[in-house]
Design brief:
Immunoglobulin-like
Length: 176
């Protein structure tokens, strides 16, 4: 009688733990690490630009990527996929030569837009659907081993204005 109670209690505890850890991951995710790099979204800004057909929101930010293993990486492809609520995903693939030396960093300026018709009353402030980003960088390290860094971002709905412009000191790269 006591053992089934323990099993049931352990099962309930494990289910609660899984649910709580899942809920914790629903909030914004603005930094992380992969095997070869660390990354952080900075300078997040949501800006309204009214047009004759309604409102257009621009969500801009910088993605600062830093090499963490102590070796040189040469990225040759960056794929950005934006998942916007109510709209299908959009993917951009960029080819180039983006070297990242040991412990060095570069920043990737990124932006998404969403248009809200003037007849949409609930498309203001925190009600603006915030996109989810997946950024995949592939290349090789200085020993010709393949490197793949996948970064999943969930940005805050209404980012607070920040006077911290420390990412300005990090050299930008251009996606072409």
């Amino acid at each position: 009688m006591f053992i089934p109670f323990l099993r049931r209690s352990a099962s309930i505890f494990l289910c609660a733990l899984v649910l709580l850890s899942g809920c914790a991951s629903l909030g914004p995710k603005v930094q992380g690490e992969t095997e070869a790099v660390s990354w952080k979204a900075t300078d997040m800004k949501l800006e309204l630009r009214p047009t004759s057909n309604g409102n257009r929101y621009f969500y801009t930010f910088n993605l600062v990527v830093r090499e963490t293993r102590g070796s040189t990486i040469k990225f040759n492809e960056i794929v950005t996929t934006i998942y916007q609520p109510g709209v299908g995903p959009w993917t951009g693939t960029y080819q180039g030569d983006w070297p990242l030396g040991p412990r060095e960093a570069f920043r990737v300026p990124l932006q998404s837009t969403i248009s809200c018709l003037s007849t949409t009353p609930n498309c203001l402030g925190t009600n603006v659907p915030v996109p989810l980003w997946r950024i995949t960088m592939t290349g090789t390290d200085d020993q010709a081993r393949p490197v793949k860094a996948v970064m999943d971002l969930s940005l805050p709905a209404d980012p607070s204005p920040s006077s911290d412009r420390s990412s300005d000191a990090v050299p930008p790269i251009k996606l072409r």
